[in-house]
Design brief:
Length: about 400
């Protein structure tokens, strides 16, 4: 029976994703009629379609692989703590029982952090305020990482502004490859000399339109595997340092290039540390939590622990050596967090969340938010109304073909 359940889940999940994705691409093609009339409406249309597509993905995730985000905010994330924005880190990383903050400062911090949150009538957190434009970086544990980051964008109503980088081979997929190009995802051949012009062109184009944009990057370049772990160890040896235990050494050049390109239009860089329970030392996270296990077997992470830090781009080094040192320091911190998480089941800065009705309420600097749409019917199927426009297009095309046929026949 378990095998049958896994097979049925896999078939149903595949059909659901295939159907929604194909319909989304069909809706995207309607934008070809908008482009000659208004470029601004064209890009707004694709942002709306992206929102619908991601919402369908979240609904599929809720059904096949339900989970909750446990998000912990660093003090650098609040507006009146500029002194934290430069170093962007809390002393809790090295001493979880730090008590140097006064009660008054804690109260101010709580009040300012509360301003970032949106709650429903029950007091549960349903939204988080982020800037319209930002760069977001994170450690890369499993291929599903980007889905959870995208849901954070959903909480900020920015899930129609995501820019991600994908393998070039995905752009060659029939139908769906064209759809990803409509969304202006950036496709890479994994060689900077070949990708540089493409990256700069896409970023400068997006910047010139002055529209919301979340550029999401994984500086490690890929998930942990036996092969990438070996490369990370070799690189660490070259740098004269020990390799990390739960992360890979980050790549510098691509992120620095993006930062320098966007620094006059984007103010903030957000750094996420993502951790999943159930991964033992020495295990490759993607081997434990494959897409098959998440969607077909229902063995995905039920809790996704995320630590958020914020940095002002203007405060970050612009030279290669300085930026390299800064990024390595951030990844050293991440690895320490991951080691702590592996030993204690939570991140060092994370506050305990209550159990029961109040478990999703704000507690200290930590919130728990289910990966769930607020209005599933409206948010999942509203885009189907766009497909109605294909009805008159069908009749127009049919009439035109018949008319041309009669002309030729005569």
């Amino acid at each position: 029976m378990e095998v049958l359940r896994i097979v049925l889940n896999g078939v149903l999940c595949s059909i659901t994703l295939w159907t929604h994705t194909t319909c989304v691409v069909a809706a995207q093609y309607l934008s070809l009629f908008i482009w000659p009339l208004s470029k601004d409406v064209y890009y707004k249309f694709h942002a709306q379609i992206m929102r619908f597509w991601s919402q369908n993905l979240f609904q599929t995730m809720d059904y096949f692989a339900p989970g909750e985000l446990i998000i912990t905010f660093d003090k650098s994330c609040i507006n009146n703590k500029d002194k934290h924005c430069k170093n962007g880190q809390e002393s809790a990383l090295n001493s979880t029982n730090n008590t140097t903050e006064t009660n008054e400062e804690d109260e101010v911090y709580q009040e300012e952090l509360e301003k970032l949150l949106t709650r429903n009538n029950q007091g549960q957190v349903t939204g988080i305020s982020f800037p319209e434009k930002l760069i977001m970086i994170a450690n890369h544990q499993i291929y599903a990482d980007w889905i959870y980051i995208w849901f954070i964008a959903y909480l900020s109503k920015a899930h129609g502004a995501i820019k991600i980088m994908l393998k070039h081979s995905l752009s060659l997929l029939p139908i769906w490859g064209r759809g990803m190009k409509f969304f202006e995802f950036i496709f890479l051949k994994r060689r900077l000399e070949q990708d540089k012009d493409n990256i700069l062109g896409m970023l400068n184009s997006a910047k010139s339109r002055n529209r919301p944009m979340w550029l999401v990057l994984f500086p490690e370049g890929t998930v942990i595997s036996d092969n990438t772990r070996l490369k990370s160890k070799n690189y660490a040896t070259k740098l004269g340092m020990d390799d990390f235990k739960f992360t890979l050494l980050p790549r510098i050049t691509g992120l620095l290039m993006c930062k320098e390109t966007l620094k006059d239009s984007v103010e903030w860089l957000y750094d996420l540390t993502i951790a999943y329970p159930g991964i033992k030392p020495g295990e490759n996270p993607e081997d434990v939590m494959t897409m098959k296990r998440i969607f077909c077997e229902g063995n995905g992470p039920h809790e996704i622990h995320i630590h958020v830090q914020r940095y002002r781009l203007a405060d970050l080094p612009s030279d290669t050596e300085g930026f390299s040192n800064w990024l390595l320091e951030r990844w050293t911190e991440k690895d320490k967090r991951m080691i702590y998480f592996n030993e204690h089941g939570k991140l060092p800065e994370e506050h305990d969340i209550g159990i029961g009705e109040d478990e999703r309420l704000f507690n200290g600097n930590t919130v728990k938010i289910p990966i769930k749409l607020q209005n599933p019917l409206k948010e999942c199927y509203g885009y189907l109304l766009y497909l109605v426009f294909y009805i008159p297009l069908y009749y127009i095309a049919s009439y035109t073909i018949r008319y041309i046929y009669h002309l030729i026949a005569q």
